[in-house]
Amino acid sequence: MELHIAQNTQELSENLAAWISNYIQEVLQDQPIFTLALSGGNTPKQLHMLLAKEPYKIMIPWNRIHFFWGDERAVPFEDERNNAKMAYDTLLNIVGVPEENIHVMRTDIPPEESAAAYEKMLHTYFKEGETTFDLVLLGMGDDGHTLSLFPGMPVVHEQDAWVKAFFLPAQNMYRITLTAPVVNNAACVIFMATGTGKSLTLKSVIEGTFNPDKYPSQLIRPEDGELHWFVDEAAAGALEM
Ligand SMILES: O=C1O[C@H](COP(=O)(O)O)[C@@H](O)[C@H](O)[C@H]1O
User: Fold this and answer.
1) Domain residue spans in the chain?
2) Which listed site, 5, 49, 135, 186, has its alpha carbon 20 to 30 Å from 67?
3) Please, what CATH class does the domain formed by 2-232 belong to?
4) Nearest CA residue ID for atom 3, ligand 1
5) Around Cβ 215, how many Cβ atoms within 10 Å?
6) pLDDT digit string (tens) for 96-120?
């Protein structure tokens, strides 16, 4: 695991935009397309907005990137809480990506149906037991959840399905999420975490004992791929390292 600490969210986003741009261009020297899974929430917004501006808007071959999501809140696309809408508003509508390269988790059909359709679509890109995404971007909630793997929910233990839908009583909402095994087969996984509200959780996730029921983010340990944490000083405040 590699830890990258920036002074604040702005610096973190700048460092990460440069890192991602280099990585995409490097990978695309050896293969025709790049597969990228996005996260939702607030943390990635600044990163998206930087990637949507020059120099990255020009440097990155956006039409060769295929977009996926790590998780989705089962609310209509127009709802501000919808993770795909956030990415369209902050990045995809600005850089102009061919629609056929964008794979949203549908929220206009029942969640279980959406999860099954998403898994089927993923199998057209990735084979069982082989490397999946070139890059998965993840956030971490203040409670230690990542994707929609929430503390205490059975989905945390899913070993077979790549995508699951379930009802999250705490938010009175269905969620659709990739599971830990499919993310752990990615070539590279990057977590972003900012703010003092995440500092104690970050310490437990990185330095504490393994307890994924309490801290599902601990489940993310790529088998052969890279794992990076991009955090700001506020989030890193409680770390000993
Ligand atoms: O609900 C969610 O939360 C996490 C973390 O969000 P943040 O606002 O604390 O960055 C996010 O990664 C996930 O995609 C989203 O559905």
Assistant:
1) 2-232
2) 5
3) alpha beta
4) 41
5) 24
6) 999 999 999 999 999 999 999 999 9
